[in-house]
Amino acid sequence: MKLLEEFLKAFPGRFKVYGSSLRIITDSYFFLGNDGKEKLLFVVGKKGICQLFDGQKIGQIGSNDVLMCKKTHENLLALRKIINLNPTTINKKASFGFGDRIGLATPAHAKVAKDFEVFPIFAQQSVRELSRTGRTYKDVLDDAVWGVFESGYNFEFGADADHVKEIEDLEKASNEGFTMYTVDPSDHIKDVSKLSQKEFQSLYQDNKIRRELEMRYVGKLYKFKDFEFRMTDEEFAEIFVTYIDAIEHVCKCYDVLKAKGKPFDFEVSIDETAVPTTPLAHIFIVKELRRRGIDFKTLALRFSGEWQKGIDYIGDMEMFRKEIITHSKISKELGGYKLSLHSGSDKFSVYPIFSEATEGEFHVKTAGTNYLEAIRVVAVKDPELYREIHKFALTKFEQDRKSYHVTTDLSKIPDVDKMKNEELVKLLDMPDSRQLIHITYGSVLTAKDENGRWLFKERILKVLQENEDLHYDFVEKHMRKHLSLLGLERRIEK
Ligand SMILES: O=C(O)[C@@H](O)[C@@H](O)[C@H](O)C(=O)CO
């Protein structure tokens, strides 16, 4: 800290510094500051170090140059060569995805992660999120890494290219150094309830590997400690037709990543499908993937009930308990992978059951709930802007809900023009208005006026930058609640 005091003395009144970001490497030091307009990277060191960065020399402290640098990708790459800020693969029993759609929340996420026995995935965005917000994998990783740097977080973290459907997106994420890939083969999953008998039979009978797999699975008894399953002809045919193309697609994706020769965590997500995953389907998918050499680390199943974005679980809790216990026992006995819970934001009533059933070995993904905390700051600090966003969101909801499963009832949302400023924040606690804001993030963050100027994005960022501590507090409090209910508090001295 003496170093930062020296810096502040050398440049009185010009900058705010982020003390947590300070890293000292031999006789050079690096930290983030703010000149009142933007965050900046400061490098204080000898010429040899400073010349690795693109910045402006603003003075000298002792024999060291002081370089002020923009937070560019190139400067971050230079910093990553000196300080280990690189994402890695998961090395803990429990892992948790802190998806951040705006890119400013990682310092708060990192503050939370430090206090829990969890492997954090700070960079996590789905292809759907990227296309809606106009961000790239590079943006997502850079934002997360700058956030890790700012927070002083010194432990490992990962980067998840979430819900990837096309091979070219895997390539892009891999080129940026992502460490986890969530392949979503839902476009290849057949909803057999929608097939005619003829269609079903032709998909089944005409498939070349059907006979071989029939021999493997039909009539076979799968014995677990507490239960057993035998696959009938009909069950096999239904599971085969439902999942076989998806399994083949997953294999193609895996081979592409494997060929890169870099370590990675591979997740298969079949959560965004119409039909809940049966125990037999779970067994079939795992056995087939394994047989084909796919080393997947996490598997996201579709559980029964409603797993809607941004709100708690809707459904029969007892049924979920039984389901998760069965799936968890299957996964433990088949071994080598964890269950992953998607749409994990705000599923507070489910977490203790999920954590207990999986014996603390799981992955959970959250994302939109962090965006909602950012908009909560807007509702508190700039009520007029909130009203504008809210009214705009109402016009975009029908279009934006298409790739999200929600049962939002817009008629239950109070009229924002009739609410007092201080009441607006309550909308961020009501299920229907939460989903309205949650689902329309892309439209809001990319909306432009007729002159091509951002309608909301810059104003949202400004509110968040001017109220950074409040933003971090909101996100931190909310995420602590998630991790506490998942039973991840550290039991050892920090
Ligand atoms: O909105 C998205 O596309 C993603 O954030 C999610 O589907 C993600 O996989 C998730 O489940 C976060 O709760």
Automatic annotation (TrEMBL):
Enzyme class name: isomerase
Catalytic activity: keto-D-tagaturonate = keto-D-fructuronate
Pfam families referenced in this protein's UniProt entry, alphabetically: UxaE
Active site: residue positions: D162 (proton acceptor), E267 (proton donor)
EC number: 5.1.2.7
Binding site for a divalent metal cation: H163, K309, H342
Needed cofactors: a divalent metal cation
Any one GO MF annotation of this record: metal ion binding
Keywords, comma-separated and alphabetical: Isomerase, Metal-binding
Lineage top rank: taxon: Bacteria
Function description: Catalyzes the epimerization of D-tagaturonate (D-TagA) to D-fructuronate (D-FruA).
Family of this protein: Belongs to the UxaE family.
Name of this protein: Tagaturonate/fructuronate epimerase
Source organism of the structure: Pseudothermotoga thermarum DSM 5069
Gene name of this polypeptide: uxaE
